[in-house]
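The protein record quoted in full:
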Amino acid sequence: MIVCTFGDRAPLGRLLDQSRDCYDELMVIHDGPDFEDVRSLVEPFGGRFVERPRAFSQEPHIPFAIGQARNDWILRFDTDEYPSTELKEWLREFRRTDDVDSKIAGYQWICPAWNGHKRITENWPHKFVRLFNRNRVSVVGVCENGPQPDVGYSCPKMRLRFWHEPKTPSHGLRNIFGKPRTDQAKRNLARALLGSPLDHPTWRHRTEEWPAGWQDVKEHPVLTALRRVIVWPPRQALAMVIAGDLPRPSVFFHAGIFHATVCLEYWRERRAIKKSAKPKC
């Protein structure tokens, strides 16, 4: 199990307590200096603790952690997440089995939306692949980017859940426009897209091409922003209905609006570079 953190000692303690016996090896990566003595929390669980240079997000550390792991199957949680009882039982059984389909690269689980006080969905959405075989995926270590399965491999969706319970809502306009971490993630991602994926930490990613969704942003930022803010919300609302959840606008609009802001931030950054490169007469 790999966890990347910046402080967050209290939620990390909950995660470690709730995921006992769900993994064979624990590695916690701290983004920058350990200012909350997270090391003393991790070591009693038998985990390896590593301080790395500040990157202002967790994703740049993931390729390093994958390479340091002693096992091929990688389990990933954020500090403010933890597995449900059913998922814990499944993970413990998964550790004991050798019978895993050789064409499965990873698994996707449901992560219900959280409003800061309670869960407001039950069956939606399925999040990024959180358990994966490192020999069947590639990773570019930039914000909001998860493992990409190799061609010919699948990442099936399972009706198992993990809980994401931060202090504030996990969705909505305040999350997008009023949360410093979200604003930092948007800027980091937009600036990363100005260059090549090979400029960033990677795992088994060897081309100049970005994963498909991000390549769209690079090539057509404004059009992609419009598409994501117009097409994604109704599509996600329908997915919520099909899953059996009440379609809440604050939830189904979230991803489209956030990604549109990333597109426009990238467009603004790219435009500023082009203007500064013009010769002055």
